[in-house]
Amino acid sequence: MSPAGRAQIAPPGGVPADNSNNPTPVPSSPPSPQRGRRRPNPNASGSPNPKASPSETPEPPQFNTLDGVWEIELQPLGQRLATYSHVDIAATGANLTGYYQTAGSKGPKYPMTGSFDGRLISMTVTMPTGNATFNGYVETFADMVGVYKKNDADPGTAFTAEHRKKVKERS
């Protein structure tokens, strides 16, 4: 192919350059780091390192239902200490039944009913002083967050609850 058949690019001075024998290399930029991803370990063989020590923290139990005992932590505004209670839940579809127990495992048990739609939870406890409610949401069947109200006039108290493994009952 003759130089006349090639496309000529004019430099800023206006005279076309003959690039037929001296191709200009294309500058390459360094690879950009990927945020949020770890670099692959060149020493990783796909199997765990036999010299690595086992984890000190055991894996948390995996729950796939609300059934079981939940430890509730009430966090009253203006008070230094939280109070603890338990709720034992049995789920049948979207309906919940069970009991609410105050003062640890030695306190009185009150009947509880409620509903759960896969995320939002609502429980009503029938107590001697009237109905108390727990309203909130559930994360991965292991944690619950919401507001506890003793009655309709109560502004509410924040609560968190954690699903607990079944504990042996003492006789």
In brief, what are we looking at here?
With 171 residues, this protein is an all-beta fold. It is 0% helix and 38% strand.
Itemize the secondary structure elements and their pairings.
Layout: E1 68-75, E2 83-92, E3 95-101, E4 109-116, E5 120-127, E6 130-139, E7 143-149, E8 157-163
Antiparallel strand pairs: 1-2, 1-8, 2-3, 3-4, 4-5, 5-6, 6-7, 7-8
Descriptive notes:
This protein is 0% helix and 38% strand. The protein is mostly beta strands. It has a domain at 68-163: Lipocalin (Beta Barrel), CATH 2.40.128. Strands 1-2-3-4-5-6-7-8 form an eight-stranded antiparallel β-barrel.
Radius of gyration: 33 Å
Largest sheet: number of strands, sense, barrel closure: 8 strands, antiparallel, barrel
Average pLDDT for all residues = 77
Number of strands: 8
